[in-house]
Amino acid sequence: MKQSAIVALVAGGAGFIGSHLCRALLDRGFEVICLDNLQTARQINLVSLEGARGFTFIHADIVDPLPDSVTRRRDIGRIYNLACAASPPQYQADPEHTMLTSVVGTDRLLRLAEQTRARFLLTSTSEVYGDPEAHPQREEYRGWVNCTGPRACYDEGKRAAEAIAFDFGRLGRADVRVARIFNTYGPNMHPDDGRVISNLLCQALSGEDITIYGDGSQTRSFCFVSDMVDGLMQLMEADGIELAPVNLGNPEEFTILQLLERVVAQTRSTSRVSYKSLPIDDPRRRRPDIGRARDLLGWTPRVSLEEGLRITCDFFATELRSGGDDIRRLGGDNRQIAAE
Ligand code: UDP
What we know:
alpha/beta; Rossmann fold; 2 domains
């Protein structure tokens, strides 16, 4: 899939998945413009990219008008929109900004795609299915979402972003692709991200109490980041595909307690388990049906949870040992809004 000098704009390129995507694009010969407001991104994610040939970083927020250095360019061939805080405690910290990032930010990037004739890929989310009644979730399922709850700023924002993207696509204003990303993990996650894999691994590694929300019977399906990045790039590069959302995720489903067992086995932790109340609107189960991605792209995840946890555990262990200023105060308040 070697491409030469196609310019790819990655909004949210300093974030967890974005930084891996920028690296993969550079490795495949794309020129990369990374746009990020550094709200939840880690500076450290950029360190290995800055200085790389063909990489440019622009500090900007897609809620604001796009900088001239971007809008002036006519040579952008790909626009990936990964810009949005994605972890519940982080997207709930400034819910208005979260909603505007999805709605206003996506609209700005779509207009840029229209001007430049670039292909446009929106990273949407499994959150559009809410607390799903259908299981596993297929793209046709329209979701069971609470538009007045604390997750609404994210999931309703992404649903609105999909709506705008599909309108641009239907009207021929842009060549649009929409990926619905399911829980993804791996190196470069922020230790203070607040999501279950980073929390459990960091707590286990540092001997702090491991927090399980609810009774741990809720399920998730965890996709390793390299599989996700492959899926995103394949979706972007596929020619002549129909305008339709595509689930990307690993269909292997685990309860949070099963994840806990694997984390404890991996880290040999002696941490105690501390049960906390379940966050409001926390989905009971989640598992992608990836039949469409398989049929359209021939894509399927390759990295097992065991292998992915080992790699991610090594990453956090190194981070915790190095004790950089990026390391969170473990046990600090990175919780989402909990049910009473
Ligand atoms: N969770 C947990 N302990 C934590 C963080 C999360 O038990 O320290 C639970 C959370 O309530 C949810 C699941 O793990 O049921 C996945 O949460 P995460 O925030 O990673 O992602 P979500 O899929 O909810 O967006």
